[in-house]
């Protein structure tokens, strides 16, 4: 069984984001620490444990700058066998639909049985990759999977929606996006990290892959930080007085009751 | 732009409020172009929808559409878009709306802008959306000839009924074999309000101390019609399900009022709720970061403050 897992390198969740004074459409990247997109960890864990149980092999695919190699190596330390890094400046800044098209093209020569990705990228806040990939590869998909069981050539998954959970059977090949609750991503030990350094990684440009760069579909023109919040009233009274003041504030100042 | 299509999601037999918000958002950019609605559900839901400012309602129904299935619903909405020669689609960014919009955008080879909080038209359609999970707002120009835009629920107004119902047409898209089949729909244990659609959220963190502590949170939330939120710590401890998590790896919310109880206000949590109109924090530590960002910061034990607050609010609400 061939499994592909799609990854992205994103700023650490601790990162304080600042806007580049020289270019209001960009953030300052100098001091940022980069990590694997947190949801991708669930996808890697799912891929690796399925491969272990069902004798499969996992390939990580990533569109990124050259240093995104780091997240593929991390995935390799978790058990992924090989990697494809599409390191192409023309691809990195594209919108999610175009990136999905590129990844679909890269995978289409030998389509995997199962493609896994994270629920959402926490940098661009796009949660469309899985469904778009599936559409381009004419596969079915299920998003936001929080439980997964492989049974022969189909998977049974659970997917949360507003107000409930759906249990869905999906035949393979297909695409799943993974979210918290699905598993506990493993911490690779030192041996695994060392072994990861020697696993095969293909680094390609779009031209190498014979994929033409799609036209720009959208462009970020301006970034702004949300209005800074300043301290309001600090209430140090006893609980009764504090609660009464809060109720009065809600009614008279905030005017929301 | 030629025509705009909105997809109106039906939940428990009725048109969701966020679908009406999509009609309003479409009106913001439509100019002289028509806005049409596609609805998959009962005739009466379609008729309700026709009372709002749309040119026509395309109504899909039948036993094949009783539950949401990504592929059949994508086919249905795509058929409508094709038939209406529409180039712009607006959908509320609910769980199902996000699912549908992504597949649809790929099929249309459209630009996709998700979870937008503002929309304008000029030389291009320009949308505003939060990125870095709420840490930054981005204005994005749509350059592609076709666009799929999902709007964050609870941000746009709902339009008034027009008084002149729009025409309702039946639409029967051709059906392909469904691959990913929904076998079972399990309703949530208790039917709680979703944090992304609530005007008021009462949230608990580590300070709540355990699953029993969330009963106190739940109690006040119920009595004022609020949703229950949580920090990642509370979720990771297993005190409350993940769907309640607010923050960078949970849900990004923008309610009118956010009441943070026993939550320190870590950067990842704040990213998810920093755009609330008002924040009340209840924390025993006056130095907790949230206390410097709240409009109303109560230093105290949440277990002592919340019950009194609940009584006070009830008094006001019952008046
Ligand atoms: C990759 C990553 C992603 C993350 N994503 C998220 C996310 O999406 N959402 C999120 O919330 N966090 C997220 N975090 C975690 C975040 O960094 C914090 O650890 C977390 O938000 C802290 O939760 P807390 O405020 O409940 O707990 P704490 O920081 O421990 O704060 C508890 C607070 O409760 C107060 N308190 C204790 N007892 C009482 C009492 N009886 N009455 C009143 N106050 C009391 C304390 O003074 C303290 O301020 C993420 C972290 C990482 C690394
Ligand atoms: N985050 C990471 N997780 C696992 N392996 C990594 C990571 N980053 C780098 N590596 C691998 O470890 C090598 C560097 O390790 P070191 O020499 O300890 O700095 C890289 O060349 C990668 O092969």
- Rg of chain B: 21 Å
For the record, the CATH class of the largest domain in chain A is: Alpha Beta
User: Structural class of the secondary elements of chain A?
Assistant: alpha/beta
Measured by residues with Cβ under 8 Å of the partner chain's Cβ, the largest interface is:
A-B, 86 and 96 residues
CATH superfamily of the largest domain in chain B: HUPs
CATH fold-level assignment of the largest domain in chain B: Rossmann fold
Total of DSSP H or I helical runs spanning 4+ residues of chain A: 7
* Oligomeric description of these chains: heterodimer
Number of helices of chain B: 8
What do you see in this structure?
The complex is a heterodimer of chains A (257) and B (319). With 257 residues, chain A is an alpha/beta fold. In chain A, 28% of the residues lie in helices and 29% in strands. Chain A folds into two domains: 2-204, 3-Layer(aba) Sandwich (Rossmann fold); 227-257, no CATH class. Chain A has helices spanning 38-54, 69-77, 89-92, 96-108, 129-136, 190-196, 239-252, and strands at residues 2-7, 9-11, 34-36, 57-63, 82-86, 114-118, 141-151, 154-161, 164-171, 174-178, 201-204, 218-224, 233-235. In chain A, strands 9-8-7-10-6-1-4-5-11 form a nine-stranded mixed β-sheet, with helices on both faces. A two-stranded antiparallel ribbon of chain A has the order 2-3. In chain A, helix 2 (69-77) crosses helix 6 (190-196). Chain A is globular, with a radius of gyration of 22 Å. The mean pLDDT of chain A is 96. Chain B folds into two domains: 3-171, HUPs (Rossmann fold), CATH 3.40.50; 200-317, TPP-binding domain (Rossmann fold), CATH 3.40.50. Chain B is built from eight helices and 17 strands. In chain B, the strands form three sheets. Chain B has a nine-stranded mixed β-sheet, with helices on both faces. In chain B, strand 2 (10-11) and strand 3 form a beta hairpin. The interface between A and B is large, with 86 and 96 residues. Flavin-adenine dinucleotide binds at residues 205-207, 231-234, 245, 247-250, 262-264, 266, 268-269, 272, 282-285, 288, 301-303 of chain B.
């Amino acid at each position: 069984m061939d499994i592909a897992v799609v990854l992205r390198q994103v700023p650490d969740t601790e990162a304080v984001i600042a806007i580049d004074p020289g270019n209001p459409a960009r953030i300052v990247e100098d001091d940022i620490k980069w990590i694997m997109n947190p949801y991708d960890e669930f996808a890697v864990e799912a891929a690796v444990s399925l491969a272990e149980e069902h004798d499969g092999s996992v390939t990580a695919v990533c569109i990124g700058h050259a240093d995104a190699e780091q997240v593929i190596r991390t995935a390799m330390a978790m058990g992924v066998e090989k990697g494809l890094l599409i390191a192409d400046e023309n691809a990195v800044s594209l919108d999610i639909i175009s990136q999905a098209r590129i990844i679909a093209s890269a995978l289409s020569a030998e389509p995997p049985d199962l493609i896994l990705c994270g629920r959402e990228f926490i940098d661009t806040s796009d949660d469309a990759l899985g469904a778009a990939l599936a559409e381009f590869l004419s596969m079915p998909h299920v998003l936001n999977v929080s439980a997964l069981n492989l049974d022969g050539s189909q998977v049974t998954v659970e997917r949360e929606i507003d107000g409930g959970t759906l249990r869905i059977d999906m035949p393979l090949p297909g695409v799943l996006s993974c979210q918290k609750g699905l598993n506990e991503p493993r911490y690779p030990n030192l041996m695994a990290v060392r072994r990861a350094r020697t696993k095969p990684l293909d680094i390609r440009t779009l031209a190498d892959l014979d994929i033409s760069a799609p036209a720009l579909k959208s462009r970020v023109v301006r970034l702004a930080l949300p209005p800074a919040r300043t301290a309001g009233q600090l209430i140090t009274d006893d609980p009764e007085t504090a609660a009464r003041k809060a109720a009065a504030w809600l009614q008279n100042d905030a005017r929301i009751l | 732009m030629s025509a705009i299509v909105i997809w109106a999601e039906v939940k428990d037999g009725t048109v969701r409020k966020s679908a009406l918000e999509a009609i309003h958002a479409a009106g913001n950019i439509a100019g002289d172009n028509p806005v049409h609605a596609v609805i998959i559900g009962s005739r009466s839901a379609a008729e309700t929808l026709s009372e709002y400012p749309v040119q026509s309602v395309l109504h899909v129904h039948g036993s094949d559409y009783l539950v949401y299935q990504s592929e059949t619903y994508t086919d249905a909405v795509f058929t409508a878009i094709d038939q209406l020669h529409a180039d712009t689609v607006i959908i509320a960014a609910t769980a199902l709306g996000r699912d549908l919009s992504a597949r649809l955008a790929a099929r249309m080879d459209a630009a996709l802008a998700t979870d937008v909080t503002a929309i304008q038209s000029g030389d291009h359609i320009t949308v505003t959306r939060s990125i870095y999970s709420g840490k930054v707002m981005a204005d994005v120009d749509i350059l592609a000839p076709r666009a799929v835009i999902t709007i964050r629920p609870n941000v746009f107004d709902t339009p008034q009924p027009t008084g002149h119902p729009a025409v309702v047409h039946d639409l029967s898209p051709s059906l392909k074999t469904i691959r990913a089949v929904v076998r079972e729909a399990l309703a949530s244990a208790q039917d709680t309000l979703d944090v992304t659609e609530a005007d008021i959220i009462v949230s608990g963190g580590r300070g709540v101390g355990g699953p029993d502590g969330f009963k106190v949170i739940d109690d006040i939330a119920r009595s004022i019609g609020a949703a229950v939120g949580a920090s990642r710590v509370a979720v990771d401890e297993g005190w409350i399900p993940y769907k309640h998590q607010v923050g960078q790896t949970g849900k990004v919310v923008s309610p009118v009022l956010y009441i943070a109880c026993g939550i320190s206000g870590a950067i990842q949590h704040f990213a998810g709720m920093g755009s609330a109109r008002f924040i009340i924090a209840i924390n025993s530590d006056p130095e907790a970061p949230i206390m410097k960002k709240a409009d109303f910061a109560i230093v105290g034990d949440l277990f002592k403050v919340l019950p009194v607050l609940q009584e006070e609010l009830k008094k006001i609400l019952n008046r």
